[in-house]
Design brief:
Helices cover about 65% and strands about 10% of the residues. It has about 300 residues and is of the alpha+beta class. The relative contact order is 0.12.
Length: about 300
């Protein structure tokens, strides 16, 4: 029940902030500028502002709330090293990697579940690195250190922010194009200006939702392609932090023999392990491909 209440409260807060932002931007642009963007009975200006505010705004608000939402969704508990020898080793290892990467010490957390780990946070100097209880039990310390190096590389590279930018731009494009195509289709069948006089018809909503689905699928392919590329870079980043690629290779081999932990949708792209089927919708490359890339890695 607590998760449901948090989810509803978060979404209501996001919608409220986006609505206020939308009206502020419209006021700043001014009615004359908005009108000049209207053509063929379609208010391109309003549609564009709406799409950017809700597409980019939603992505960035989710990023800003990523740490508390991540902790709640996987039931993670933050540790400081005083809980026991295992937790103390984990915190000291992350601290050492953060120092090597020249970033501030992130929060460290442990959560119950199958083998996985993730990093999240809006800023690289205020991030969260979390590991599952299963991956701590199943991996050697050297392998787990490589996994932590992988997640710290995500933090150093600013992957959370970049992925948010990619997702936000694509969300905006999907919203804008879906509405424009819907209005164009309605104008073609009902005549220009009809939607403005009578409001959107069933034709508009039909085309709009179909385009939302089709463009949303294409956007997902782009996001997944970027996510796969990001994983190769994080693997190489772990090798740089540790000075050798072998611990990361062994960690990936170990992952291949473990049941991967399933993360919430908002964290899937950030996990050390994720969907690896050989298709366009995979967030992670196949483990054998990642190992092959690391075998070719050389210190730069």
């Amino acid at each position: 029940m607590k998760r449901v209440i948090l989810f509803l409260f978060t979404n209501l807060a996001v919608m409220l902030v986006l609505m206020v932002s939308f009206h502020v931007i419209c006021a700043l642009i001014g009615p004359e500028a908005m009108e000049s963007l209207s053509r063929d009975g379609i208010d391109y200006g309003t549609i564009l502002v709406f799409s950017v505010v809700f597409g980019m705004g939603g992505a960035f608000i989710s990023l800003l709330l990523s740490k508390p939402i991540a902790k709640m969704s996987v039931r993670a508990r933050t540790i400081d090293g005083s809980e026991g020898p295992q937790e103390r080793w984990l915190v000291s290892t992350v601290e050492d990697l953060a120092r090597r990467a020249n970033v501030k010490m992130p929060e460290v957390a442990i959560y119950p579940g199958s083998a996985n780990a993730f990093a999240t946070g809006a800023f690289k100097n205020s991030a969260l690195v979390a590991v599952s209880t299963d991956i701590m039990e199943q991996m050697s310390r050297e392998e787990l250190r490589a996994v932590l190096g992988h997640e710290m590389s995500h933090v150093v590279n600013g992957d959370m922010v970049t992925l948010t930018l990619v997702q936000g731009v694509l969300n905006s494009c999907v919203l804008f194009l879906s509405r424009v195509v819907g209005f164009l289709a309605e104008n073609a069948l009902n005549g220009k200006g009809e939607s403005r006089r009578r409001g959107p018809s069933g034709i508009y909503y039909l085309v709009y939702y179909v385009m939302q689905i089709l463009l949303g699928v294409l956007a997902s392919i782009v996001v997944c392609a970027y996510s796969r590329r990001r994983e190769y870079a994080a693997d190489a980043g772990s090798a740089r932090l540790l000075g050798t690629q072998m611990p990361m290779i062994e960690a990936l081999r170990r992952l291949g023999n473990l049941r991967p932990g399933v993360l919430p949708d908002s964290l899937k792209a950030m996990g050390i392990s994720g969907k690896t089927a050989k298709n366009l919708f995979s967030t992670h490359p196949p483990l054998e491909n990642r190992i092959e890339a690391l075998m070719k890695w050389t210190p730069s």
